[in-house]
Amino acid sequence: MINDRISNSGKYNAVNADFAKVFAFLAGIDGSTALGRYDISDTAYVNVAEGDTVPRSEGRFGAHDIYADIQYMICGREVIDFCDAGGLCVTGDNPAGDIKFLAEPADYAQEYLGEGWFAVLFPGEAHRPMTAPDGIPMHVKKAVAKIKIN
Questions:
Q1: 47 — phi, psi (to 5°)?
Q2: DSSP 12-61
Q3: What's the CA gap between 26 and 46, in Å, rounded?
Q4: Closest Cα to residue 8, out of 83, 70, 82?
Q5: Cβ neighbours of 26 (radius 10 Å)
Q6: Taking the model in full, what pTM does it have?
Q7: What is the mean pLDDT of each successive set of 10 residues along the chain, which is 150 residues long?
Q8: Of 6, 60, 118, 132, which is most buried with the most CB atoms under 10 A?
Q9: Which of 147, 91, 94, 96 is CA-nearest to residue 123?
Q10: Is the Cα dihedral 146, 59, 126, 103 positive or negative?
């Protein structure tokens, strides 16, 4: 996982051909950006959405096989729990949506995602986004980019 400010995103453009395009799009959006899907290329798109963070007990871990996520916080704050997906039991999946839901791991790390910050989660990295900071739900607006890696 990478966690950094959007102003530093240029450091990661070489990871994949679509990263520069996605980061340029993300750097240009704000709280007034319309909700919905934005196609960036044939292998990358961004969904802008709003929602409420939830207590840790209400979230669940998931992982992708094909797409990397770039999760960018436009307004609000959340915690993203993450760990390696290897060895975690699959509790459900949606192959068409490139998501496997996973059992709660015994151990995981946490990162805060505040306004203007992004997190990159690669295939095989389990993550539980939209966790309420300090257990107190809050309304957020965020963008989630999907970039085909595999």
A1: -105, 125
A2: GGGGSTTHHHHHHHHHT--TTSPSEEEEEETTEEEEEEEEE-B-GGG--E
A3: 9
A4: 70
A5: 23
A6: 0.94
A7: 96 94 97 98 98 96 96 98 94 91 95 97 96 95 95
A8: 118
A9: 147
A10: negative
Phi, psi of 93, rounded to the nearest 5 degrees: -155, 160
CA–CA separation, 142 vs 133, rounded Å?
15
Residues in CB range of 79: below 8 A, 6 or more apart? 53, 56, 110, 111, 112, 113, 131, 132, 133
Q: What token pair was written down for 137?
A: 């739900």
The values of phi and psi at residue 143, to 5°, are -115, 135
